[in-house]
Amino acid sequence: MDPDPESQADPPAFDLSGGHTALDLVNTLDNRFEDDTRVELLTDYGALLRFAQQTQLLEPAQARSLAKSVQSNAAARALRSVRELREALATALYGHLEGRPPPDSAIRTLERHFLAADRHRELRWQEEAASHGQEAMKWQWGRFAKEADLPVWILADQASQLMLSDAMQRVRACDAETCRWLFLDTSKNHTRRWCNMKVCGNRMKARRFQARRGANA
């Protein structure tokens, strides 16, 4: 199995600029439109666990448990599965932004992942919560919580929630041509252009400034 996600020497944190976990997942393939400089951030199962932990989909104890117990072949299968989910999401979301319906192959892939997530949840009654006036019946992962695919199912559930909601109308792609990361536009006027203003926004401002200086020289 891959190393414990917390035992590696200062692994880089994921940039969660997307505003939604499903969009952050798509962004784990950096420079996806530049074949020569494409960067895979989900390099191994340990990276997937770190991503799930950083996005608060897994508790640290859950991530440690999976890192220690999952066999290497199951970890490799889960990694392939989450990348497949990610690329189907990317195809559907970028196509949506360009006014194109997703191909049937992407829809079927998403459908398969969404249904798999549903099949591996259990409906539980929580008496203590009910006695305190809280939601008593909840979906839980139950006996599936120690499976290698747990982070994949959780991410599929997140993706399903996004794609079946009106939040889809607020999905944007970063205006920086060298980026194109996806994000959820929660700005007041829905005019946000950059995934991260401090990075891409300032970079593009600097480019426009230099272009104006060159034109006026």
Can you walk me through this structure?
The chain is mainly α and 217 residues long. It has one domain: Jann2411-like fold (Orthogonal Bundle), CATH 1.10.3300. 49% of the residues lie in helices and 8% in strands. It has eight helices and six strands; from the N terminus they run αββααααβαβαββα. It has helices at 21-26, 45-54, 60-69, 72-97, 104-119, 127-131, 150-163, 197-216; strands spanning 29-30, 39-40, 122-125, 137-140, 171-173, 182-184. A two-stranded antiparallel sheet has the order 1-2. The chain has a two-stranded antiparallel sheet with strand order 3-4. The longest helix has 26 residues, at 72-97. The radius of gyration is 20 Å and the shape is globular. The N and C termini lie far apart (59 Å).
A few lines on this structure:
With 217 residues, the chain is mainly α.
Named CATH topology: Jann2411-like fold
Biggest sheet, spatial arrangement of strands: 1-2
Which CATH architecture is right? Orthogonal Bundle
Tell me about the largest β-sheet: 2 strands, antiparallel
Low-confidence stretches: none
Instruction: Give me the count of strands.
Output: 6
Structural class: mainly alpha
Mean pLDDT: 86
How many helix segments? 8
Share of residues in strands: 5-15%
| CA gyration radius, whole angstroms | 20 Å
User: So what's the CATH class?
Assistant: Mainly Alpha
Instruction: Bin the helical content.
Output: 40-55%
Give the domain tally. 1
Q: Alpha-carbon distance between the termini?
A: 59 Å
What general form does the structure show?
A: globular
CATH homologous superfamily heading: Jann2411-like domain
How do the helices and strands follow one another from N- to C-terminus?
Answer: HEEHHHHEHEHEEH
